[in-house]
Write the structure tokens for this entry.
Amino acid sequence: MKPLLLFLLLGFSATVALFPLHAKESIPVTRLPAFPGAEGAGKWSKGGRGGKVIAVTNLNDSGPGSLRAAVDMREPRTVIFRVSGTIELQKPIRIAHPFITIAGQTAPGDGICLKGQELQIGATHDVIVRYLRCRLGDKTSKASERDAISIWDARDVIIDHCSATWSTDECLSVTNDSDRVTVQHCLIAEALTEHSYGSIIGSHRGAISYLYNLYACNRARNPRPGGYQTTPGHADDPGPQIDFRHNVIFNWDSGPGYTGAGYADQPERIAMNYVGNYLKPGLDTAATYRDRAFVIYKGATAELYLDGNVSGDGTVSRPATPQSDLLIPSPGCTLIHRETPLPLEPLTEKENLKAIDAYKRALEIVGASKPARDAADTRIVNGVRDGTGRRKMTIPDDAWPTLNNQDALPDQDNDGLPDAWEQSQGLNSNDPSDANKPSTPNGYTHLEVWMNAL
């Protein structure tokens, strides 16, 4: 990760397709998860609930109808798509203003891909991003290594069913003073060059959940948790409080995950539940690390709760017994084994998911699988399934799939809800205010009910 404070926020004024709704009478007052199935520390994010609907109508980098123009709005907003395809970004796109939902599943056709620059979520709160592909590519030089998705100094954020691939640094990281963040059901794969990493998970003391994700063909940092105890004023911070559960890690190289910089004068502290994860070595995995999950380097203090993790040969035929066999503690580190899990946001129906079931589920639904899983993600997942996936140093131009577009469904009152759906629900397709009214009995707005059912 590069110091994220060096990134400049480039602001501009843009006209977008705005459909104002009657938010005062319609925002639910009860506490709701971001959407049904939201889990972990970021599950209570409000996103753009009750705000305006902004339609992305073209694949331009900027200007009227673009995704960037929608993101740069300051009002609470839900971003839907009336187009599918690849958006070739000329610069990073940053979510800096709070209360936003980006609903990639609403795109007609094959969905949306961001190409060439990273998606940044920085110094903001209440952000929901679902079903987007973020593929950086390797046109940037080593001097400008970038993540595919980068989150920092943010709170109440949930990233769900996104594909973060082909980065030149980490694929999908949460850092700095972030708190109450969830990354779930995401494909975190094929980071490029020798700087080929999965995730940094860092915070002074914040709660961060990584749940049901698939890491594939990244050299290391699957994940790399770390604190910021060397930052002035933060020497006594406990570091990130991490729930890392039910993830799949495939074909790492020199150690799947680690913490610590390896120096006594650079102390770090982390606390982490490491539960129900499925580690499947591949063709690039070094023999030393084939049945190991996590290295604790010199200078690091790691407080870990381990349970139900599975690792082994290419078929992952055995559980690690005892769980401590998954760890490689280095001289000069401090390893604290917890007998009970960290008291973080409890999971619900998937609490007791076994590692093998997490693996099978990931193969079916992980990443931007709606409106359709594309050829690139399908290739990666198939490589995990049959064990043939390999690390990549570079991505050729023809590796980017063509995402087919379709006509958006008619919506004559421009409230984001298709006319046919409104009529099926007894709503008025000429009344734009009903999209943001609560749907009984669950309390979500009609717009949310439609989006969540896609």
In short: The longest strand covers residues 268-275. Helices lie at 67-71, 355-365, 375-386, 419-424, 446-453. Confidence is low (pLDDT under 50) at residues 1-28.
